[in-house]
Amino acid sequence: MKVNIIGVPEHFNLPWQMAIEEGAFLDRGIDLTWTDIPEGTGKMCQMLENNETDLAIVLTEGVVKSITEGNAAKIVQEFIATPLQWGIHVGAKSNYQNIEDIKEKKAAISRFGSGSHLMAYVNAQNEGWNIDELKFEVVHTLDGAVTALTNGNADYFMWEHFTTKPLVDDGTFRRIADCPTPWPCFVIAATESFIAKNSAVLQHILAVINLYTVEFKNIPSIDKTLANQYNQKLEDIQEWLAMTRWSQQQIDSKTITTVNDTLTELGRINTSLPYKEIVM
Q1: pTM of the entire predicted model
Q2: For burial by CB atoms within 10 Å, which of 87, 129, 143, 274 has the most?
Q3: 40 within 8 A of 52, measured Cβ to Cβ
Q4: 125, 180 contact by CB (below 8 A)
């Protein structure tokens, strides 16, 4: 059976690539086809809503917001149990040196409803800024953010710390701070139609990926593999591995409540859905 899955082209998702390459899904009669979506969670939520994919590895806050707004999808499992470290970046040649310098400045975001958009609100709340004064420039991708920060169309950009580290190292960006998510960062989501028609297939997919993620950190030289595949420095990957934990469990109701309460407080959703309407 053919199943489509999407995710960002980042180091978190290497277990999926390995399981596909090693035929672990095919062994169970599942032709799992992976597609990279560099635009991130906002684009992936749209693809779930349009039934352009069956499954997606998405940011928790983004998919909760999307489901609340009527997307017929559900969280089927937590994928990364630890927070995401969002680096706050400015153009290397800009005059901005610290967080206060970017207050009331324009944030580059991949799209509205994306992690880069929602986390700009979380950061503003953390800093005590007026969230109604936030300004945004849609840049779609990391490459788009490089262009926007370099030519001054936007002033700062929030993206995963380690994914953007090579751009900090080569002098394209300067990182002025980090802002971790207040919740586990990535979940596996599926369309309701896929869940309804293929519950047994879904359980097989989860069983396979959980076998891979539970052993992932113990794979010999996995740090070198990750560094090579994602153009990262070995010490950066080792730091990232030390702070990252994959999950094999469903996300808990307390976490969903925290996400709901935060998004409501920030004015990103009007009403929060109960746990049972967000998760499978």
Answers
A1: 0.94
A2: 87
A3: no
A4: no
